[in-house]
């Protein structure tokens, strides 16, 4: 019996599908095989080709210097597509690794440091890099720095070079530390927004911009003391590196108008006369100088060199053996899960737990760079470190740029706390802030009413005045959390709550000032923290493993989409405080967009607290950053 046309068609489709499936599997298997071959070559292929003798390492540092890259590749792609801020991040660990490896590399004979595209970085991590440059020079390899101009962050690195050159039209801009803040009391009154603040700590000034038109006497005193300490450390460092007389930096700044007049407005010559640089050269003149000192490349147009990124790609981490696990706690502390470059109570605790449960990891270093945030999330992280110590694993805290308020809280369960002299720490205090907008809705004719079963029903509705009984409850809770804070700090520092309270009250200190007051164990670097952890774990040869988060995007989307009617109301307040305010300020006053953005950011933060899911959030935050 002959087959029908439909049978032939069906047989043809089956054959085609089988052929397609076989081809697909073949292609995928080939791709998988290529990946395995590439990995094998990378791991066992003998390493990259030597750059050649008398090679100069070009440290063209581009981007923001930070402890950890924020987000992930997908975030970076989305930022690029949307036009959002997608600045490159330079990880401190990578810069240190490059300098340490190059110092021992016989093919590397020196370095050229270019800082024009270095976009920020706190004082502690800048000094970490500066110390690494000193170690590189101590190995007998000179460092030549060049910049078209230097801001004071860039110059802190350049000052540690063997030679510092500046473009003839450039300048070194040393401005000092400290800034003016915006205060919004009158503006919020005009908007009809009432800010209800509950706090503990005379110096806990985070929320002062929302309740006053200027800083309190205590806040001004504390800020001046902190900034003067940081500035003294900066000028001392620069003067020592440049072999200048003590006080010469401040003298140059104070005499600047007269010095500029003497040099007929030539700021580069003013800088040269002040001995902040060794010479005035264009970039091509520096290149020509390096060609004469080094080995010309194959084409003879420049000197033999290898760039920072290329050299970093050649460095292979050790993959086996006993390890120290490093958990980076960078950014604001929030409840739940956070991506890399920020701190989540649950996600950071998970990293600590993963380190504890890894048999190859023998000690944990918590590297902190955080101004604080949620008190609850801070305690979740502190508890995880406490469990790690209870399991017999040493824990060492290394304080970076900032480890204040909640950042100090998470540092209280360690065998040893090491701060840098210019770390900003302390700020032991707690507050809660609840903005209400009952006057706003009065202006537009909106009314709210209801019959809850208790006086607590809808008690934190931002469209109603805050019930004094609610304020009393929250203040009581804040008092309790503060007592818990200083109690845990006293236990950690082996002293009494009364003595901790004497240096707490929300006041911030430099690392050096904190050491004098017993808030940290000693001053040192990140490298010192690794050595301390290795010593406590009795390790001589060890590798460093960075515990990296793996955050699901689904959780973030759920967080964005979830919420209640109360959150919707809160978002309307956020709109009033944020977008509309920025637009009105920009249009009605002609303020620069950057200024309007800063105002919107401040008020947007205030609105975010209103939109929180809890009735209120106990906040341990210092409103501070490393200058």
Structural overview:
The protein is α/β, with parallel strands linked by helices. Helices cover 48% and strands 17% of the residues. It contains 25 helices and 24 strands. The strands form seven sheets. Strands 12, 15, 17, 18, 19, 21, 22 and 23 form an eight-stranded mixed beta sheet that branches. Helix 14 packs parallel to helix 15 (375-390). It is globular and about 85 Å long. The N and C termini lie far apart (90 Å). The model is unreliable at 73-86, 553-582 and 584-589 (pLDDT under 50). Belongs to the peptidase S49 family. It holds the Pfam family Peptidase_S49. The chain crosses the membrane at residues 27-47. Residues 136-290, 389-539 form the Peptidase S49 domain. It is found in: Membrane.
Distance N terminus to C terminus? 90 Å
Strand fraction: 15-25%
Q: What low-confidence regions span 5 or more consecutive residues with pLDDT below 50?
A: 73-86, 553-582, 584-589
Number of helices: 25
Q: Roughly how many Å is the radius of gyration?
A: 29 Å
Task: Return the structural class.
Answer: alpha/beta
Helix content: 40-55%
Average pLDDT number: 85
Q: Oligomeric form of this entry?
A: single chain
Number of E-type strands: 24
Largest sheet: 8 strands, mixed
What is the 3D shape?
globular
Family: Belongs to the peptidase S49 family.
Domain Peptidase S49: 136-290, 389-539
Protein name: Signal peptide peptidase SppA
Transmembrane segments: 27-47
